Amino acid sequence: MKFISPEYFQLISKLQNTHSINRELFISIAKTTASFKPMSKPLIKLEFPKIDFKEFSLDYANIREVTEKNSNHGWTLTLDMDINTYLDDDLLIKTADELDTVFLEYFRSDDFSPYKREKTNILAHINTKWNGTLNECFKLYELGYFKTQIPLLITIVEGEIADFTNLQNFIGKGLISNWKQSLDTQGDNLDALVLFSLFYFLEKGLFERDDFRGNRNPTINRNRILHGRDNPNHWNEADYFKLINTLSSIQTCKEIIMENI
């Protein structure tokens, strides 16, 4: 699969956010437009059934900056996420707590439709051994509980990566580093941006080596949690959604990788 060119990034994003375009069609459009050559002139207007597009420009440096900011605080990118919400420039000036509020409101919106899409993506692609456990996690959240799922979801994140990559002898950050070696996380394309988003959070946050004697980082950390060094009173609903979103990002990455084999 060829990577999606920057010129089509925003077009595909707009299509994704149109109610008449489902995820399968979004991916199909992405694959089709990936082979197009960059255009020398800005796109003035494209016609698609019931959709009109006006002139737009693409600032990929800005896109990566917003992605880095979001991922640094645990909010990774998936193909099921509203990209206009994820790449909003206003997020650059928000604090970590404000960023959490934005994404919590997003996942709760429209009767939790974004959350339901992520759950569907996870269950459709994850190793089936996790399905029963994940459904219990989802039910607990519906009952208003989320703290007990935090360590379990971290375990599933690590186990899913080890299963998919066949790096069973690696754990923690070593697992993430070995997985990343053969992947393009720096290209100017949607695939690389998704990979960059996931690995930034895994490397800089969730799987970062932590000195237990130091102050706690606001972002949840695998080592502190799984080794019993964290205070569960710090865990919140946003952490639950960050881990659900991370699992969905992993499934997206699996699709990208499989298409390039």
Observed structural traits:
single chain; 261 residues; mainly alpha; two-stranded antiparallel sheet; 2 strands; 2% strand; disordered N terminus
Account of the protein in words:
This protein has 261 residues and is mostly helical. It contains eleven helices and two strands, in the order ααββααααααααα. Strands 1-2 form a two-stranded antiparallel sheet. Helix 5 crosses helix 11 (237-259) and helix 9 packs across helix 11. The protein is globular and about 45 Å long. The relative contact order is 0.14. Mean pLDDT is 80; it is low at 1-8 and 14-57.
Structure summarized in a few sentences:
This protein is 57% helix and 2% strand. It is mainly alpha-helical and 261 residues long. Helix 3 runs parallel beside helix 9 (190-206).
The run of helices and strands is: HHEEHHHHHHHHH
Biggest β-sheet strands, sense, barrel = 2 strands, antiparallel
Percent strand equals under 5%
How many beta strands in the DSSP annotation?
2
Low-pLDDT parts are 1-8, 14-57
What structural category arises from helix and sheet content? Answer: mainly alpha
> Can you tell me the overall shape?
globular
The DSSP helix count reads 11
> What is Rg?
18 Å
The mean pLDDT is: 80
Measured between the Cα atoms of the first and last residue, the distance is: 8 Å
Helix content: 55-70%
Lateral arrangement of strands in the main beta sheet:
1-2
